[in-house]
């Protein structure tokens, strides 16, 4: 059972650390250090990997956490599912709206801003869910 607890904490820590590092360091730094067009292309190329990393580490954490706390495992499994949703559904919509906006479609610009806010909110909710689950596991 100790290896399960250790695996839960390690996989959850990798997930949480990756999310914080990407959100607080990588994304802002890319837009500070690269010209806007290059930054946008780089971030667009990076997001599928970020979402895949999040989905896989959250899924691993959820599987291990199932033996520790079923409710928390469900929370982390939902986080994994939201990563899949963001990668497969939300990201293509954001990219399409951004492309249309750059093509001169003002309505697409509004849609892009809405979808971008939604993705940021979703990421924050996921981060809080993982943080809460890890705090509960570490406290038990």
UniProtKB/TrEMBL annotation:
UniProt keyword terms in alphabetical order: Membrane, Transmembrane, Transmembrane helix
Keyword presence, Thylakoid: no
InterPro entries the record matches: TMEM205-like
Transmembrane segments: 12-32, 52-85, 120-139
GO CC entries: membrane
Span of domain TMEM205-like: 13-100
Main location: membrane
Keyword Cytoplasm appears in the UniProt entry: no
Highest taxon in the source lineage: Bacteria
Subcellular location: Membrane
Protein name: DUF4149 domain-containing protein
């Amino acid at each position: 059972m100790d290896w399960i607890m250790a695996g839960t904490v390690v996989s959850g820590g990798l997930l949480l650390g990756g999310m914080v590092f990407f959100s607080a360091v990588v994304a802002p730094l890319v837009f500070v250090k690269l010209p806007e067009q290059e930054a946008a292309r780089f971030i667009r190329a990076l997001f599928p990997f970020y979402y895949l990393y999040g989905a896989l580490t959250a899924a691993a954490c959820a599987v291990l956490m199932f033996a520790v706390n079923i409710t928390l495992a469900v929370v982390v499994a939902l986080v994994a599912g939201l990563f899949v949703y963001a990668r497969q559904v939300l990201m293509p919509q954001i990219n399409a709206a951004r492309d249309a906006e750059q093509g001169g479609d003002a309505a697409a610009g509004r849609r892009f801003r809405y979808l971008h806010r939604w993705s940021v909110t979703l990421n924050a909710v996921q981060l809080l869910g993982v943080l809460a689950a890890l705090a509960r596991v570490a406290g038990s």
